[in-house]
Write a structure and sequence with these properties.
With 408 residues, the protein is of the alpha/beta class. 37% of the residues lie in helices and 14% in strands.
């Protein structure tokens, strides 16, 4: 790669990874500009609305980027979302329209910026909303880097297979339109490098024909909140019906996350002092016996700022995903000294029997066995909790910055 490609322009929809990549670049004084769909400064009128309104949108800001050069499309985004909700578009229609809309808005910014920029620019954009941006960049002679947010089309094949195994949890899930994957293939072709966050994602992309030498594994970065410093995790001497083991699942309640296998484990553990907390949007059909199961507590999706309460109160974090690009919730759990039970199909956060347990396979039986080990070994849980901070330095912002330097 040309070592002169030192200044970056980053594009992202949402607050993905808490803006880790632009933050790492900004620390190195290499962020020329960040373009995102929404950026809500502290003095924005949106912050004077009642707290319950537009909470997620108002979190689209990071103080470490306060001095950076940033473009956002707040008003346009609100109008876009209202328009498409009124028109009752399907999920895929909205996703594709949003990606197209974001790129159209971003190209306008690029047209204004490009005369002021040299040819030694790296344009970074996330998958599925990068094609038009890469085409523009190539005309300027810029380097292009694709941030692959998931394991791609191979992951979809796994989800389809899971739906066939568990038809009782039928949902509105639909196969991705072929045009979506066709555009993604073009993004991969135009990308000089493709950044993935885990070895699992790398394997998945290679299975679909992406060249190995084009892929670079760069784990996510995570900066724990200051409040974790003074947090002490205390476990009871033993778990009982009055104080059951609290198993936390936080994320979308969908088949890809392994929830069908969790429900099987819950059935196997019906006589044990265990309570399951599910926090997230439900994306599958839940049978009545699951909804009414006394061992399960259901919570709706919560904002990023309120998840800390659940991490603090839980005893173990459950992440039996069938496929994830990484799984940032693993790092959030570790920040709160919360042991993890995870699958092998995500980012490498868990060191087996050090800070948690890695499932040998994602089955109800394997999940139940791991949970029982935690239930019956309070000292082991405490050990896992104490080792959590041994892992976090590997995912620091400075480490991410070092990895990004290697892409130039």
């Amino acid at each position: 790669m040309n070592e002169n490609h030192s200044n970056w322009i980053c594009f992202q929809i949402g607050a993905r990874e808490h803006y880790a990549i632009p933050r790492a670049l900004h620390e190195q004084e290499k962020l020329a500009h960040l373009v995102t769909d929404a950026w809500v400064m502290p003095k924005s009128m949106l912050n004077f609305l009642p707290k319950s309104l537009l909470t997620n949108l108002r979190e689209r800001f990071h103080p470490k980027l306060a001095s950076a050069s940033i473009s956002g499309f707040n008003n346009y985004l609100i109008r876009f979302e209202i328009k498409h909700k009124i028109n009752k578009k399907s999920d895929w229609e909205i996703i594709i329209a949003r990606n197209k809309w974001f790129q159209e808005q971003s190209i306008r910014i690029l047209e204004k910026l490009s005369p002021q920029l040299s040819s030694s620019i790296t344009l970074f954009a996330y998958s599925y909303a990068a094609l038009d941006l890469f085409k523009f960049a190539k005309k300027q002679g810029w380097q292009t880097i694709l941030g692959q947010i998931d394991p791609g089309i191979y992951e979809e094949q796994l989800v389809k297979q899971e739906g066939g195994l568990y038809p009782e949890y039928t949902s509105s899930w639909q196969l991705t339109p072929t045009s979506y994957w066709a555009n993604w293939r073009q993004e991969c072709t135009l990308a000089d490098r493709i950044v993935v966050n885990s070895d699992w994602s790398s394997q998945a992309l290679q299975k679909t024909g992406i060249a190995t030498d084009k892929i670079k594994i760069v784990p996510l970065a995570y900066q724990p909140p200051e409040a974790v410093t003074n947090f002490t995790r205390v476990y009871p001497r033993s778990f009982s019906k009055d104080r059951p083991l609290r198993v936390l699942f936080l994320g979308q309640i969908i088949l890809r996350k392994g929830v069908a296998r969790i429900f099987k484990a819950i059935e196997l553990l019906k006589n044990d002092a265990i309570e399951f907390w599910f926090i997230g949007a439900v994306g599958i059909n839940l049978p009545q016996e699951i909804k009414n199961n006394q061992k399960i507590k259901w919570f709706s999706a919560v904002s990023r700022s309120t998840t800390a309460h659940y991490y603090q109160q839980a005893d173990v974090f459950l992440f039996p995903t069938l496929s994830d690009g990484f799984g940032l919730t693993q790092l959030e759990a570790q920040a709160w000294k919360l042991p993890i039970i995870a699958s092998k199909f995500c980012g490498e956060v868990v060191k087996d029997k050090i800070n948690g347990l890695i499932l040998p396979e994602v089955t109800g039986e394997a999940i139940a066995k791991s949970i029982l080990l935690c239930l019956n070994n309070r000292d082991l849980l405490s050990k896992f909790s104490q080792e959590s901070f041994q892992v976090l330095p590997n995912f620091s912002l400075s480490e991410l910055g070092k990895q990004l330097k290697l892409l130039n």
